[in-house]
């Protein structure tokens, strides 16, 4: 039986890497994209191959349409099919108030976190839709609990970009439901990944964990587990759902 293929953007670290490794152990062939961290991406590929499935890492900036097209072209050439997309690639910036934010910061935030996810979803639909001759499939968008909380004084732009991703999830889910494609999102809360360090707050999880009802930060694998369920046949009647994985932080 031919294995299914999942494309995970931003798969070299954090939630994306955890999802790639878990998918491999559940029998998926895995393609990951990465922008800068080639060594980390190659380490994920090695782990996937050790699990007995095929793997490919492709350097691509999801905020650049030409690079997204090349990424999907590599999937076509190497595997000839696509069964799931995990829109995981994203960026955050230094904590700032809206009054301090530049247009350049805002454009980068929405280009990567929102527009990039739209372009990837578009390409996935073109390949998976039964209307276009595909087999159907699943799209899982990695949003954030910030889209509900607003991230005041820190990341209002990030929260807004993820809020747009939530709305895209709902609209696209209805648009392609009759074409064999399910579209859902996970909204992680305070998760132990290095994205906090890239935003200048490496101690953020430890510092804020006491505010979470479960009194701890989450692990990338806990988010990956939900993503894998939404990719699987076990969720075949689930679409348009926004699944909060936040330790009760609502």
Automatic annotation (TrEMBL):
Domain of life of the native organism: Bacteria
Boundaries of every Ketoreductase domain copy: 4-191
Regions annotated as coiled coil: none
Cross-referenced Pfam families: adh_short_C2
Keywords for the protein's UniProt record, in alphabetical order: Oxidoreductase
A GO molecular-function annotation: oxidoreductase activity, acting on CH-OH group of donors
Family under the similarity heading: Belongs to the short-chain dehydrogenases/reductases (SDR) family.
The protein's name in its UniProt record: NAD(P)-dependent dehydrogenase, short-chain alcohol dehydrogenase family
Source organism phylogeny: Bacteria, Pseudomonadati, Pseudomonadota, Betaproteobacteria, Burkholderiales
């Amino acid at each position: 039986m031919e294995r299914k293929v999942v494309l995970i953007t931003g798969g070299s670290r954090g939630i994306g890497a955890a999802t790639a490794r878990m998918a491999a152990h559940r029998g998926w062939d895995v393609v990951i994209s990465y922008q800068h961290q080639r060594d980390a991406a190659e380490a994920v590929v090695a782990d996937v191959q050790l699990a007995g499935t095929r793997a490919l890492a492709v350097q691509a900036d999801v905020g650049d349409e030409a690079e997204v097209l090349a990424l999907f072209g590599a999937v076509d050439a190497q595997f000839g099919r696509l069964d799931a997309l995990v829109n995981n690639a994203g960026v955050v910036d230094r904590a700032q108030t809206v009054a301090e934010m530049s247009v350049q910061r805002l454009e980068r935030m929405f280009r990567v976190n929102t527009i990039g996810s739209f372009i990837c979803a578009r390409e996935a639909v073109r390949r998976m839709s039964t209307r276009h001759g595909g087999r159907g499939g699943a799209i899982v968008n990695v949003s954030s609990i910030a889209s509900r909380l607003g991230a005041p004084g820190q990341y209002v732009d990030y929260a807004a970009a993820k809020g747009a991703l939530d709305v895209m999830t709902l609209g696209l889910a209805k648009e392609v439901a009759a074409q064999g494609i399910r579209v859902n999102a996970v909204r992680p809360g305070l998760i132990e990944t290095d994205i906090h360090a890239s935003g200048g707050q490496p101690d953020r999880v430890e510092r804020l964990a006491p505010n979470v009802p479960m009194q701890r930060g989450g692990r990338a694998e806990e988010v990956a587990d939900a993503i894998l369920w939404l990719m699987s046949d076990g969720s075949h009647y689930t679409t348009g759902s926004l699944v909060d994985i936040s330790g009760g932080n609502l």
